[in-house]
Protein 1
Amino acid sequence: PLQFISRPTRTLGNRMREVRERLGEDFTAKLDALHRNSLRTGLVSKQELEEAFRKTRDVDHNPNRLNLLWLVGIIFFILVATPVFYETISFLLGVRCFLPNNYLVWEATRPISDCEFCKGVRAPLILTNLTREDFTPHAYSSLPIIVKKAVAHWPAQKYLNYAYIRDLYERVPGAMETDCQFLHFNSDLKSLRDVFALSPERSNLSQGAPWFVGWSVCQPAVLAELRKLYPRPHFLPVDAEMPHTDFILMGYEQGAVMHLDYIPRLMWQAQLKGNKSWFLAPAPECDHQCQPFSFYVEPGDAVLVDTRLWYHANTIPKGQFSLTVQSEYG
């Protein structure tokens, strides 16, 4: 059977008694005296007092009062809560490890450029037969530089390839289980295991879709073996600090999409196999002062670009396999 639950009701007299009890005898006595004295003056009638009481009672249900409370709450949030929220978010965004590889967040929080790095730059500086002394004036410049045939003598240009790197990682225990940074760009390969599990036909692109990946070599045993095939670039300053990791980029056609690098130092990259076209663009706020441009590099060339300032992308000619080693100095 249906059950109806009614809400208990109270008479006006009961509610008035409860209010008087909460206010206390002394306070209600003073209110009664004030009420009687007001009536004696003749300036106010009993009906006017009752109307005033009714209006004060109904104010709790007045929508204008509710709107006022909402307004007060919003102002409180803006003045008090918003600064606290802003400081909290700023702290979390400042901790890059808290939001790993979140390029959208990094882009939103990057400093605005003053555009001095790109004014008047229309092409990279091309240097040949470079010595350390020749490179010194440009060592810490933001000007893009190509050093022709700078790494052509490295053993890496002869021996380093997909099969060598795959065998090295398979030989070193746990090398593919580390948390080294991995970038799959637009490819369907999501990890080093995927890269080194490719069939021979897919790895040489005789079958399947093009692929391009990059990763940080942060496993010490792997890095030590790789560095036997490529020394420190001979033209870098003697006092330049080098990181404990390098980066490998390899694959076909796609290359890297337009982006900035969030790294602490300047970048150098050795083109070991294949040709690569580079596309550089200034920060959006510099479009009215600077211009984008492109260039290409060949096997044996070294490229130096301040990728913290220059937006950059690259592509590889159709059918060519590109292999580069990248690191930092500062």
Protein 2
Amino acid sequence: MNLRFTDSPNARSKSITTADGIDTFGILNQHSTGNGAYKVGVSEDVGTRRYMEDAHSFVVDYAGVRGQGFFAIFDGHAGKHAAEWCGAHFHEYLLDGLRTSSSATIPDVLNETFHNVDKRISRLSEESDGKIHSGCTVVTAFLRIEDADGRQSFLPAPPLSPPSPTDSGSRSGSESPTEPTDESKETGKKAKSKSPASASRFARALKSLGGSSPTSPSLPSAFSATRGQTSPPSVQTYTVPIDAPPNSRRVLYTANAGDARGVLCRAGRAVRLTYDHKGSDKQEAKRITDAGGFVMSGRVNGVLAVTRSLGDSSMKEYVVGSPYTTETELGSDDEFVILACDGLWDITGDQGAIDLRRS
């Protein structure tokens, strides 16, 4: 596996391109002009930080089914490496999980993927002799086309997928976080200072994504707000996507660790799909103290403001990679999804972001 990183402190996401025809053949961060199921927009801003440590990724017609999609945001801290690596490889690990655990539920596959990626980043840190010690919060969304019973009987066997990523690791158990309380659904305390100029930049970014809106309200768009740049392409092998039967349903599976958030616009109203894992959260603070750690000023062991992430190997005893997952069947009232790091949510709430996008 290619683990080369540049000397630049800025994280790079693979350059966004547009396919010549209708098919992207699974190429990372490539639009399809013939994709009628959804459209994708990306906006990024380094804000007040010195360096860009975030990455993004999306795959059109994901896992060999036309109309499926993978979308993710990786919000890095303590360096770029975890976020940049996830931006280039997380989708490969999820594909491998879908192929090797075909009888498992999608939330279980997502949980397995988070744990495998978390272990891989920890090994990357160990192999770097202490030079790499970063982590990243993450929010992912997998738009899946499936039968009424949640299966994909229209797929041939074996299901379409690229070669397995190396060192994928073994399946791990998960911690299932408690459902969000009304209090936890409110915007958390600001971990980073934001100026009015930052707020206006994010507002302009959300509005600029208006071109991502679909021509029909029954075809939701997915778009992401990050603060990242570009990386070398990964080589994968795909066949032409399979068309699902017209009566198939569309289900959005989301998973997050940390305070990167996903919000669905349903009939103009914000529906949060994720859970903010922060030191200020009472349930997360109890989990950490039960494990022998402590929370000071809303930070794990006085250091990290988030309680779940990928990477952060030096704090892995307390800062776990177990995701919060949701499953949402999409209908005609669902307009779009926003995936964004805390840089957006520190300056606006869920409904505020939805209203900006719709205005």
Protein 3
Amino acid sequence: MAPIRAVLATSLAALTTTVTASNVWTVNCAPLTIQRSDPILSLGTDSSHVHAAVGSTAFSRHMTGTDGATDGSATTCDKFTDHSSYWSPTLYQITDSGAFQLLEFTGMNAYYQNYTCSYNADAPGYCQGVRDAQAPPAGLRMIAGDSKRRSYDDDDLWQVAILMEAGNSGEVHGMPETLDGGRISGHARFPPCWDGVHLDSDDHRSHVSYPDPTLHGDTQGGMCPSSHPHAMINIGAQFGFNLAGITDPSKLVWSNGDMSGYGFHADFYMGWTDRDALTASFSNCFDNNNCPWRSFGSPTGADPNPTKLLPDAPPPWENLGAFGPLPALPGNNPVTDVLRIRGRRAF
């Protein structure tokens, strides 16, 4: 798995009481469901393409409202106060006959990171060792990436935030050029800056933003812009798929018809049941492997593993490829290749 950006103190003098014990920890989630649903873009109806979802068992095409995700009876994630929903496109193999074979979805890992600070007009561009990121507001919905994207521009943070990785070979923008036949993952860094008002917007992105590049920000942290001044915890999600021996990237296509990898995207529906504990979690986690369970409001103190579950509401039945190759992608999405515009290697 690709290394996550680390912030290291170079001298004790640089530390203050506001610098936390750990700036990153993970949420690990087992698969929940594969279905043609997307409660953000296609509320109440078929989505244009198939998604793989983890997290809250409330996930369905009818999930809505502030408590839409928290209403789930359980979660597939190891932090069992995390009833958020996370979903991404599924991955298919294009067979020699031109059919589409659904590949196994293995789950998701999300990196929760304390790398962003709220806009400060008195010291623009400098977080000054003080990161005041808060838990996302209850019911926040947001999308990273664009399903229709087939090209790449590294001046656009919304595109920089989407990456892929074959095995542990390192993150790249677009479909990796070589595969190891074992595992591939699609990565999405969600925008960590909020306008302070809206839980969603008509285009599902105007209410959130990435840190301002003119204030030394990027997709992994920095100061929020004045238009979206409220810093949220950074969430970087990695959705894994079993390649089943496939070593030719030209045999892969996302469920939205994208072969380029630039059209990968992911959705997040906030459902943590204890926002205060989530905000305080960085103070209570000593490192990624020593994160006291009290940080997440566990009533038992137990430390469970990710658990495969079924949604509370069964999805409408549809043949998505679990029983063998399909003649077309579900939703009849046309297969489109890549138009390369600018560099593709991640930095």
Protein 4
Amino acid sequence: MPPYTARHIISISSLALAGVGGAYLWQQRQQHRNYFQSQSSPAAPKSSTPKIAGNMASITTPFQTLFAVPMHCESCVNEVSGALYKLPGINKVEANLKDQLLTIEGTAAPSAIVNTIQSTGRDAILRGSGDSHGAAVSILETYHKPTLDKIAPAPGASDRMVRGLARMVQVNNSTTLVDLTLRGIAPGTYRATIREFGDLARGAESAGPVWSGIATLTPDTKAQISGDPNVPRGVLGTVEINKDGHGSVFLSHPLQIWEVIGHAFAVAPVSVDESAGSALENDENTVVGVIARSAGVWDNDKTVCSCTGKTLWEERKDEVEKGML
């Protein structure tokens, strides 16, 4: 991948805006205003979730994931496989002991699979999910300056703090699953959104309003959208953060991966007022990252980094030390 930073990435929708003009902008702002005003209405429950967003129980389309797992013998394979088959949503587990790889098919969230494998005393690295060009990832960081001023980054580490990870996999021509994990933010209810732009030069402030998705809406995807037509397509749903600052959610959403590559993915408290179609602020509990393509199953056979010469597991250790989930 070329060494682009977030500020170099221009979203697909930002290019589309130039062609559609004022009518598009008016429609987008009206859509935001109608939806977010309805969410802040006294009649609406505080933790109201858009009807187009789902949860783990509603995910029925199986998909494949590929994990690197240190396994040394058949006993290792049996222990890991046995733990995984106890996880709801696991249909099939296939192990390649020689290459230390696990291929898993089902509807379980990748983060839940990693946690289950780690419960056996082993680590796990997601090597690919879904089909080629059908997977994406976003590393979520804080851009809150008072928080950043307290950080003393390790050599080579980001000057921001990783607070979350969003893994995305497209399972058909109209549906994408979003596996969101967060750590280190205050307890409460948060809204996950895709933003109109991918410019993070000023963090969440330069990522723009919620992505409306009007310009790239296909007939197949439109047929999957139900509920309030005023909901911008970039509103994914909500996630609860517990008293320890941890939270996760697995959502099903009507979009295709190609539509959102280069956009920003953001998580902010539901109390933030976005009814005017405005951008978010960089407060201590708002995290954001750019959505980038990731490998599909069998698209990534790298075992040594060509840049650093480090092995897969050495790279993993370095990233965990920097705060990566």
